[in-house]
Design goal:
CATH class: Alpha Beta
Oligomer: single chain
Structural class: alpha+beta
Radius of gyration: 19 Å
Largest sheet: 8 strands, mixed
Helix content: 10-25%
Strand order of the largest sheet: 2-3-4-1-13-16-15-14
Amino acid sequence: MTQVQDAPATATSKWASEDVGNIVMLEHVNTCVPDQGPAITFYVVGLGLTRDPYMNVGLNNLWINVGEQQFHMPTRPAQRFSGHTGLVVPDLGCVEASLASVKDALKDTLFSYTVKEDHISAISPWGNELRLYAPNPRFGDIFIGMPYVEILTGRGTAAGIVKFYQQVMRAPATVIEDCGDAIAHISVGTRQWIDFRESDEDLLPYDGHHLAVYIANFSGPYEWLKARDLIKQDVRNHQFRMQEIVDPDTGEHLRTFEHEVRGMFHPMINRPMVNRNASQSMGGYARGHDALIPSGA
């Protein structure tokens, strides 16, 4: 059995901010949708994002680019998760106007949006929440991208979730508090994170949704999970899947949320993403400004 050494819960070096943990990138969130039409209206027209022009261009799947990350939406019964996905967009005012423009087209769905003090909360046609922010130092140099995913979890689970990511996934993780809620905060690469926020809400039943991450040390987490029968799909094409998050000390089940775990030899790592400039229009066209180049690309 491969033993995974514990990652320190608190880094003591003054250079700890330069450390990057084993999870180097959050790459996509996958929730199925039953109909591509409303999805395109919401994600492309309403949010100003971009359909991937190269992959899954038929009717059986929809990939939406947002900076260096994506939403994947296979055409199947709708999936939802308890929580939300955080996005950074270049211009919140532009997004507010484009969301207003799709209200009639999406009136028979769960679509809605609310303008908050520092973000826009947009609900997809099938009930998933996205929170859109303007570029801000808290997101590093991202001006279009997916800096985080927040997942709701039951009370009393945050500490165990932190141990799982520290000891099994070898990621910097800590328990923080926000608005009275304990949050398992997992650092991803240089400017992304995954939060598990404790909540009293009734959690939606797990329906197959997942997120995808890249990890540098592939064998350690894999062997730990394999030894405990926690691998959902074994290795193929440089990735495996797991979905049960457990306390590594006691084995207690804490949360179900599938992770598509990719290694650094995965052929799609650092794949360039095409992003359009949603502010372009026929009436105010600016030559040479059709594309957005995400920070770091």
